[in-house]
Task: structure prediction
Amino acid sequence: MPRLPAPPLPKILQPKPKRPGEERNGAGPVSPVEAGITVVDWIDERTSLSPALRWLLFRKVPRGINWFYTLGSATMFAFLSQAVTGVFLAMYYRPDASGGAYESVRYITDDAFLGQFVRAMHKWGASVMIILIFLHMARVFFFGAYKYPRELTWIIGVTLLILTLAMGFTGYLLPFDQRSYWATIVGVNINAGGPLIGPYLADFLRAGPEFGATTLSRFYAIHMLLIPGAIVALIGAHLYLVTKLGISAPPWLKVNAEPESDQSEV
Result:
């Protein structure tokens, strides 16, 4: 009489698989490549980041895309360059309206190691970022990529444009020389002429009714803390929507005319 097979063991009684990094059947030490893979596996086992990275990096894009589609990535790279160089400049800068701000900028330019190079990267990088974000938004507008279902992506992009311009405006005062001082006064007075919230906005930027010593600290805090934090959060939301909804096909191609390729967006 045939015997019935034994029932399978419950999961709690089954032997657990070996963890990454444990020796395999008495083998010797792992190679550097295997060690690197083991570290990645160890991190992924505890964070489960690999599915999110695959979802973000490996996605289908329509055929016919060109170099115009890299303007968004170029703008983000410019922002990262501004963030890195800004951190190094902040290590030497002093928001002191009595002369410390100007002297700290002079020290960065003339005496600090690679200070002039880093400051030039930050100064000209601001102009490059503004140019790139305008070109990126022009591409989105003329290609019709702002239409359904990407309206929210467009709104976030417009907000990022406004914050980028505000970043340039607040950073212009920080050297605190004659040119930046009087140019900022003109800019704040222009804001004061706006309807309804104009006078309140000007008082907020000046940190009071008059342009004083606290104005520099207010601009420095906005430039270093408030605006960068908002930009980072909005860039995260922008990238999430771009990944979730995908990028639009060029207007001269029909969406369903050809099958999609398996390459990811540059």
Observations:
- The first helix runs from residue 32 to 47.
- The mean pLDDT is 87.
- The chain is about 60% helix and 0% strand.
- The domain at 64-245 is CATH 1.20.810.10 (Cytochrome Bc1 Complex; Chain C).
